[in-house]
Structures are given as structure tokens and as C-alpha cells.
Amino acid sequence: MATSLRYPMGHTFLDNSGNPLASGTVHYYEVNTTTDEPIYSDAAGLTALPNPITLNSAGRAVDGSSNLVAIYLSDAGATDYKEVVKDSGGTTLWTDDNIPQPVDPTASLTDTAKPRIQWSTDTDTSVSLTAGNLGGGRLADSSSNDITYAPIAASTAGNGNGYLIKKTSGSNTVTFDPDGSETVDGGSTFAWTTGNASYWFISDGANWRVALDRGDVPVGSIVAWTTSAAPAGWLECDGSAISRTTYAGLFAVISDDYGNGDGSTTFNLPDLRGEFIRGFDNTAGTDPDAASRTDRGDGTTGDDVGTKQASAFALHGHPFRTTTGTTPNANVLGGISTDEDGTTANQTAFTGTPSDSAGEQIGGSGASTETRPTNVGMMWIIKV
């Protein structure tokens, strides 16, 4: 079904004096007739409106329960539309004939590909979503408080239908809380704090699935950040224990892979402070010690994502020369000394504290406590 928005929710109809048309009516007919044409409150054409539709005391269209509604025309009727607006006494104020019936330019696309977004702004702490909201967009203004959305049952919504919710403020949290025992991507809720991040919540007929709006970053992504403070919607990878409820989206991705927190209400972030990140071998054979990698936090070891390796220095050798005289040779290379008569060519490995003195260190600056490449310090952050 193709639809077109005739009047947005909250549109005020005026009388001939420019005042709100209190308790007036708006009636839709087939063009040049008095045969009713269907009208809807949603872009998907799922919720039919009474025809004529009544205006409230502020001159705004409402449904049978006095809820503000938008007015959508559709191609479900036989012809183009005629619109007749009357005052509370039944006097016709104006008639608009030959309003074109909508034409769907995406008829060859699947329903989920059709652009049918009507946006409504929400500020209340709790918002109950209806069947009429399916296919529409919600702008969650959480600047003053958290907002929780309660959808209809996924079984009622039907497979492939859903809601688009965009968080417009960087403050507080927006949560999608499914009906009863239903889940969202396997969790009881889905919450996010990132400002201007938006998600589709799509019913599969039994539960809800989360789909990213274009331009968003998948939860669980890790990037290098250029300051010491993580931006909104991200946390530093510092090993902290965080809430499984507040960060349900991230918990659904990494679970307790990096530590199970208190075992019930929290889980741990990866701890990447001071660490280089290496692509896990995944049987490629480029990490020769992959099998000996240590616990990432949940008991998993070996060749797997998140497992760890301590610093190491590859086994290697250095050339050196000895003297055959009775006087020590000041040019002995490699820092390995011999006795005065030159008869001891192999000495026990040095086990003391390295210094710049001959015979105690091979190469290096003499001040470092690790072997490392040149580097620039950044903060590793994870999308939540």
C-alpha cells in the first residue's frame, strides 16, 4: 500500500477568522462523490482512522480515544480524494477536490525497503508504542530524563514490522523494553547512551531484533581515541566492571568474555591499557605461540580473540671473539668476557641487573626495561 502524509500530527485547522477550528470535522470522499475514502494515522497504512475525523478544542485531529494523530491518504481507495472541512455546527468551510491518490514509486521493493518514516518526538520517561507507530520513527529527547519504550508484542507486530528510534541527546539513557518474556537480540532490554544514534527494532514474529541505522558503528567496536576522555557512547577499555542492564547491548556482544564482574549484575570490559593489539591467528600460523596464549578473562586460552601474551624476545645469537694472550682483550665483542689466559670461551649466562658495563649487556640504551617499537600512546575505547 502506498501512503502520503496529508497533515502531520498536531496540525492545527483554522476557521475563516484564523482561530483554531474547535470540534470541527474533516471528511474524505472519492473525488466528485460522497463515497468515503480510507484514511490512516500511520505511514504503513495499518491503523485506519474514523471518517470523518474529529478535531479537538485546539483544532487538531484526534482518534476515537482523543489521541493526536496524523492523517495519511492511501491508494487503497477507488479514486483520488475530496476533502471537506466543517465547523462544529456542520457548516462547510471549504472543499478541496481532486487531491491525487498516492502512488508508490518503490512498488518493486520489499516492504522493509520503502521510505515510510513519520517522526514523532518523545520526552516522557515511559512511552508505549502501538501498532499505529509501526514503520514510523521516534525522536527520543532524553536531555532531561531516561526514556523507556514499551512496544506491542512481537507476535502482534508481525514478522518484518518494527520501529525506528533515534536518541537526539547525549544525556541519559534510552531503553527498548519488550513485552513480557520476549527478548531483543537475546536480551531482556536494549539500552544506549550515544546521542544521535538510531536503531531499527524489527519483529521476527516472536521476539525483536536490532538493526543498525546507516552510519552507526556496531556495538563492541574498538578504536584508538585521541584524548584521555572517551566520547559519549564509548567507554575506555580499562577492565572495569559495568552493569549488564545499562550496557545490555554490549553484554549481548561480548558477554563475560573479558571477566564476569560480580557474576550476576556486572561484566568486565577488555583491559587494553598499555597494550598493543594483535590480530588473532585464527589458524593462519603467523603467531607461532598462539597455542600458549593465556586466559582472556573467562577461562578461554590459546588461539582465540582476546587471549593474551606476555612480552618475549626471540632466541638469537651474537658473534664474539676471545683473546689468546695472558692480558684481557679490551676489544672483546658482545659483552662476553673470558679469563686472562683465554682458555674459557663459554661463560655462564649473565643473570644480574644489566648496565652499561662491559660484559653485562648486549646493545640497548642502558635505561629501558622493555623491548618495544616506536609508538604513540592512544586510548583504546569500545562502542557501547
Q: What order do the helices and strands come in, and which of them pair?
A:
Layout: E1 3-7, E2 25-30, E3 39-40, E4 53-55, E5 61-62, E6 71-74, E7 81-86, E8 92-99, E9 119-122, E10 126-128, E11 137-140, E12 147-150, H1 154-157, E13 162-167, E14 174-176, E15 190-192, E16 198-203, E17 208-212, E18 222-225, E19 234-236, E20 241-243, H2 248-254, E21 266-268, E22 379-383
Parallel strand pairs: 9-11, 10-12, 11-13, 12-14
Antiparallel strand pairs: 1-6, 2-4, 2-7, 3-6, 4-5, 7-8, 13-16, 14-15, 16-17, 18-22, 19-22, 20-21
Describe the structure.
The chain is mainly beta. Helix content is 3%, strand content 24%. Among the domains are: 3-99, Beta Complex (Tailspike Protein, Chain), CATH 2.170.14.10; 117-212, Sandwich (Jelly Rolls), CATH 2.60.120.640. The chain is built from two helices and 22 strands. Mean pLDDT is 81; it is low at 329-340, 342-347 and 356-365.
